[in-house]
Design a protein that fits this description.
19 strands, 12-stranded antiparallel sheet, 6 helices, HIT family, subunit A
């Protein structure tokens, strides 16, 4: 099924397919999508996924168990890259050949599934691992980076994240959606092809729960959305702002836990990517691309990082929740990794080696022309 969505300022295209093993695939593009091969799957048989959740009584959070993931693909050689378009029908990958910009498909080895069966009683409070896991392939170029996308493609990615979130919201089961990217073997990447993931939860995870609580507390005490006050204060201070597009900006937050931690925020309070106007989405996309390029330029290497996209819970309107993206770079200095120490993993309190004001000044000073 082919679908075109458009606004007065832009047009995007999407087309739906079903893989041989039954998983859905959606292709997105800035131009009409053309598929020139069969829709592939690495195997015609579905993986028997039976994810389970167990409750951690002292931390007050769920732990996911997915034993079927032990056999998932791990750092294959380039000729067996499952995220590249299929070149040899005898060795199918996840994607077809053709003309399209981004692709989204259900993870073959999911940690959560919408049809997870009820498990037998366990040693802790146990239930089915209900949710969904998707893979978002940013480009057909296996050697590329997220920051190599054009401004229009980066804006399309934001639209894709918004579209997937809206689809999950419409189903009535999912309460929270997290889009993220791990980049670099230093953060545990098992496939180098530029891609991210989406986890859709049937509950509100701990980080989103705490963010919502604190944002609601700020609004109740001040009458203002937290993000409005935060952006105004950081713009006035100036020293931690890295790049400002007007409708969006990047900041090394004054409470940064990682040395070069960078946040990308809209200038006005919105909770979901779908609430951004076309111009705001474009500014948000340019700001994200700028932040990624600066991290790579900082030490002249591809910065290993974790990127997380925080949106409002889907169970009800939450206008106080601050939409934003957090980038956690894993180099604290040239050639020096940031490892989580005892205070961070054991107590949950981070120790940072550099003040955010200094880190922001270093990021502002990098040259982007040769990145």
């Amino acid at each position: 099924m082919a679908v075109m969505t458009s606004t007065a300022a832009s047009q995007t295209y999407q087309q739906e397919f079903t893989k041989p093993d039954g998983r859905p695939l959606t292709l997105y593009g800035l131009r009409p999508i053309v598929v020139t091969s069969e829709i592939p799957s690495p195997s015609p048989d579905p993986v028997d996924a039976r994810p389970v959740m167990r409750w951690h009584p002292l931390r007050g959070e769920w732990v996911m168990y997915a034993a079927h993931r032990l056999g998932r693909t791990f750092l294959p050689p380039p000729e067996y890259n499952p995220l590249a378009p299929t070149s040899d029908p005898a060795h199918p990958t996840e994607l077809p050949r053709g003309e399209y910009d981004l692709a989204v498909f259900a993870n073959r080895f999911p940690s959560l599934t919408l049809n997870a069966p009820e498990p037998p009683p366990g040693p802790a409070d146990t239930r089915a691992g209900v949710g969904a896991c998707e893979v978002v392939v940013f480009s057909q170029n296996a050697a590329g980076r997220l920051s190599d996308l054009s401004d229009a493609q980066m804006s399309l990615l934001l639209s894709v994240w918004a579209d997937r979130t809206s689809r999950f919201a419409a189903g009535g089961v999912i309460k929270s959606v997290l889009a993220f990217e791990n980049r670099g073997v230093e953060v545990g990447v098992t496939l180098h092809h530029p891609h991210g993931q989406i986890y859709a939860y049937d509950h509100l995870p701990p980080v989103a729960t705490r963010m919502l609580e604190m944002a609601q507390k700020h609004q109740a005490e001040t009458g203002n959305a937290w993000i409005s006050d935060f952006v105004a204060a950081e713009r006035e201070a100036g020293e931690r702002v890295v790049h400002d597009e007007g409708a969006a900006l990047s900041i090394v937050p004054p409470f940064a836990r990682y040395t070069y931690e960078t946040w990308i925020l809209p200038a006005r309070p919105v909770g979901l990517l779908s609430e951004l106007t076309h111009d705001e989405r474009d500014a948000f996309a340019r700001t994200l691309k700028d932040a990624l390029l600066r991290l790579d330029a900082l030490f002249g290497v591809r910065m290993p990082y974790l990127m997380t996209v925080h949106q409002a819970p889907l169970d009800a309107p939450h206008p106080e929740f601050p939409l934003h993206i957090e980038l956690y770079p894993y180099l604290r200095a040239a050639g020096r990794m940031k490892y989580l120490a005892g205070t961070e993993q054991g107590a949950g309190e981070f120790a940072n080696d550099k003040f955010p004001e200094v880190a922001a000044a270093e990021l502002r000073a990098v040259t982007l022309e040769d990145v």
